[in-house]
Amino acid sequence: MNVAVAIDQVHETQYAASEASPAPKRIVVAYGFWIFLLSDIVMFATLFATYAVLVRSTAGGPTGAQLFNQGTVAIETGCLLVSSYTCGLMALAIGSRRSTGTYFGALITFALGAAFLALELREFANMIAIGATPQRSAFLSAFFALVGCHGLHVGAGLIWLVVMMAQVATKGFVPAVHRRLLCFSLFWHALDIIWVGLFTVVYLMGVSP
Amino acid sequence: MCQIVQLVVSIRRREQLRDVTGDPWNARTLEWATASPPPAWNFGIQPHVARIDAFWTSKQLAGAKSDKAAQSRKYEPIEMPKNNPTGFVTAFFAVITGFALIWHIWWLAALGAFGAFVTFLAFAFRRHDEVEIPVEQIARFDRAHQAEAAL
Amino acid sequence: MTEPQFDRAPGDIPAHVETQAWEPSDALVYTTGLVLAVLLTATSFWVANTSVLWAPGIALGLVVLAIAQMGVHLVFFLHITTGPDNTNNVLALAFGLLIVLIVVAGTTWIITDLNANMMPSSDLMNLRMQR
Q1: What is the three-class DSSP state of B133?
Q2: Do C96 and A31 lie within an 8 Å CB cutoff?
Q3: Is residue A162 part of a domain?
Q4: A79 inside domain
C-alpha cells in the first residue's frame, strides 16, 4: 500500500508552538528545576502525612501545645517571608545587571535566612534540653524529621547563595550564572511556600484549642 | 526445531542479509536517520521538523536526490557539553558518606559530604563548559557514513 | 530577537510587552505579594489564637488561609499565571499537587482505617496484658 504523504505548507511567518525552535536554555533549565522542586514538595508531602498520622502519638511525653512558642514561630515566619521578598528584589537587580543591588539583596536574604535557622536551632536545642528528643515519642520523631528537613533545605540554600555570590564576583553575569541564580530564587520561594504549610499544620494547629 | 533452522540459515547467509542502509525497517521517525553508532552531535545538520514522521516525509521528498543533497549541505560548528568526571567522583564520595551515615561514623560522613561539595564547586567554577565540534570533523564523519546519514 | 515567546520559566521576570493599559512595575508586584502574604499570615495567627472562628472550624480556616498564602507566593513571587506561555508550568504544578493530594489523603485514610481496625477486642486485651 503506497502511503502518499501530502506535505503541509510551512507558513514561514507564523509558527505554531510545536514548530518553533527549541526554547532558550534559560527557560528549559528553569522548567527542569521547577519539576525537581515539585518532586521535593512530594517528599515533603510524605513527611507531612507522616506527621499528621503521628501527631497524637506522644507516648506520655510532651505535646505540641506544651512545646511550641508562638512568638518564635511568628518571628521565623516573618524572617522567611521578607527574605523571599528580598530574593525577589535581588532577582530584579540581576535582571538589570546591577551588581550592587544583587549583592545587597543577597546579603539581606542571607541574613534573614540565617536568623530563621538560628531561631529554629535554638528551639530544637531547648526541646532537646528538656528531654523532648526525637527518640522520646513518635510525634517528636515526626516533628524533627519534618521541620528538620525544612531547616536542612534552608541551610543548603544559604550555602548555595554564598557560592552564587562568589560566582557573580568571579564570572560576572554570564548566562550560566544567570540560570543558576534563577534556579536559586525558585528554590528559595518554594522553601517559603513549604514553610507556610509547615507553620500552619505543625505550629498553629498544634496549639489551637 | 524451526528456531534452530532459522538460526542456522541466518548465520550462514549473514553477508547476503546484512543491512547497509542503516534503515532496515524503512522507518518513519528520525532516530533511524542517524549513523550507528551515532556521533556525539547526532545530526550534522539539524533536521527541519514540521510534522510527525519527519523521516518518512523527507524520504518521500528525496527519492533519488540523496547524492545531490549530500554535496550541497552546509555545515556549521556545533557546541556540545564538555565531558567531565564530576558525576563519577561525586558518586564515590556519596558511597563514603552513605556508608558512614549507616554506621554512625560522623567524622567520615562529614568528610564524604565535604568531598562531594568540593567536587561540585570545581564543576561550578570551571571556565569552559562547552566544546565546539569543528566543521571538518562533522563533514568527515558524514562522508564516512554516507549511506546511513540518509537525510 | 523578535521571535514570540512560547514558554516562560517559573520565577522568571516576565518580558515587558508594550501595551496601552497600565502594567504594574516588577517591584510593585513583589511588594503587593509581600503585603498580601503578611496579611494572610497575621490572620492565620489571629484565627489560631483567638476564638473568632467557631472552634471546630479553626483547622479548616487555617487550611484555607494557608492555601491562599501559597497562591499569593505562586502568583506574585513565582509569576505562575494562566497565560499560554505558562501552560507547561501550570501543568507540572497541577501534577505535583495531584501526587501530594494522593499521598497525604491516601496515607491519612489508610492509617485511620488501620487504627480503627486495630482496636483490641476483649480477648486480645488478655494477650496484651500478659506482656
Answers
A1: strand
A2: no
A3: yes
A4: yes
Domain of A123, CATH number, reads 1.20.120.80
Residue A9 placed within a domain: no
Cα(C61)–Cα(C64) distance, rounded to whole angstroms?
A: 5
Q: How far is B122 from chain A (nearest CA, A)?
A: 11
The C-alpha of A1 sits at a distance from chain C's nearest C-alpha, in angstroms, of 39
C50 touches chain A (CB under 8 A): no
The β-bridge relationship of strands B130-133 and B78-81 is antiparallel
Specify the long-range contacts of residues A163-167, CB closer than 8 Å, at least 24 apart: A163/B121, A163/B124, A164/A106, A165/A102, A165/A103, A165/A106, A167/B124, A167/B125
Within 8 A of A1 by CB-CB distance, chain B residues are none
Of C27, C49, C59, the CB nearest to A92: C27
Domain range for A77:
25-55+62-207
The domain tally of chain A equals: 1
Q: Is C53 in CB contact (< 8 Å) with chain A?
A: no
Least confidently predicted of A81-85, A100-104, B71-75, B133-137: B71-75
For residues B49 and B51, what is the distance between their CA atoms, to the nearest angstrom? 6
CB A132 within 8 A of CB A125: no
Q: DSSP letter string over C39-106?
A: HHHHHHHHHHHSSSS-GGGHHHHHHHHHHHHHHHIIIIIS---SSGGGHHHHHHHHHHHHHHHHHHHH
Which among C27, C82, B45 is positioned nearest to A98, based on CA atoms? C27
Are the CB atoms for A147 and A121 separated by under 8 Å?
Answer: no
Return all residues near A167 (Cβ < 8 A) that are at least 6 apart: A177, A180, B124, B125
Closest residue in chain A to residue C50, using alpha carbons only: A208
Q: d(Cα B60, Cα C25) in Å, to the nearest integer?
A: 53
Cell of B62: 528525496
Task: Give the ipTM of the model, two decimals please.
Answer: 0.81
In chain B the first and final C-alpha atoms are separated, in Å, by 42
The residue whose grid cell reads 521517525 is B29
Residue A7 lies in a domain: no
Q: What is the pTM of this model?
A: 0.83
What is the DSSP annotation of A95-140? HTT-HHHHHHHHHHHHHHHHHHHHHHHHHHHHHHHTT--TTT-HHH
Confidence of residue A14 (pLDDT cuts 50, 70, 90): low
pLDDT tens by residue, A53-98: 998 888 888 988 889 988 999 999 999 999 999 999 999 999 888 8
- pLDDT exceeds cutoff 80 at B72: no
> How far apart, in whole angstroms, are the C-alpha atoms of residue B52 and residue A114?
52
Q: What torsion, rounded to 10 degrees, do the Cα atoms C64, C68, C69, C75 define?
A: 160
DSSP-derived secondary structure for B60-77: HHHTT-HHHHHHH-----
